[in-house]
Design brief:
Strand content: 15-25%
Strand order of the largest sheet: 1-2-3-5-4
Bound molecules: guanosine-5'-monophosphate, zinc ion
Largest sheet: 5 strands, antiparallel
CATH class: Alpha Beta
Number of domains: 1
Helix content: 25-40%
CATH topology: HIT family, subunit A
Number of strands: 5
Number of helices: 3
Shape: globular
CATH superfamily: HIT-like
Radius of gyration: 17 Å
Length: 136
């Protein structure tokens, strides 16, 4: 896609620190890392988000993440990572080309995820009813 930063990176029009590349997938260091080694993994073809991504591409991406992530975390002497997917603008997606974030984690790095709160009386059941009826 013409105006997409990540398509430009795929085409080599914008430079990146390439971690891994094959015919279908590109992984490169995030320009503004949450932690050292923060890597973005993208399909070379343009899909806006997870819901547009064909299942076969999703399978390929997961397979590559399983290959790349151990190297990423070992390379920065980490033992764990978060695999983040911001789907849609309101969820924090800034670049409209599907991508997964591999974020290496370190003890006490302060990057805790959001905090939950328990459902109120009957709330879970009411929500569940609506969701279940919408699954096609
Ligand atoms: P999002 O918020 O869409 O889930 O994440 C987009 C990520 O892309 C951000 O973490 C941001 O730092 C990264 N990013 C944006 N532009 C560029 C770029 O030109 N090069 C690289 N390497 N990363 C970028
Ligand atoms: Zn794109």
């Amino acid at each position: 896609m013409e105006d997409c930063i990540f398509c430009k990176i795929v085409k080599g029009e914008i430079p990146c620190h390439k971690v891994y590349e094959d015919d279908d997938v590109l992984a490169f260091l995030d320009i503004s890392p949450v932690n050292p080694g923060h890597t973005l993994v993208i399909p070379k073809r343009h899909y806006a988000d997870l819901l547009e991504l064909p299942e076969v591409e999703a399978q390929t991406l997961i397979a590559r993440i399983k290959k790349i992530a151990p190297a990423v975390i070992s390379g920065v002497e980490s033992k764990a990572f978060n695999l983040n997917l911001n789907n849609g603008k309101i969820a924090g997606q800034e670049v409209g080309h599907f991508h997964w974030h591999i974020v290496p984690r370190f003890e006490g790095d302060g990057r805790e995820l959001w905090h939950g709160r328990p459902y109120g009386e009957g709330e879970a059941e009411a929500i569940l009813e609506k969701i279940k009826n919408l699954i096609k």
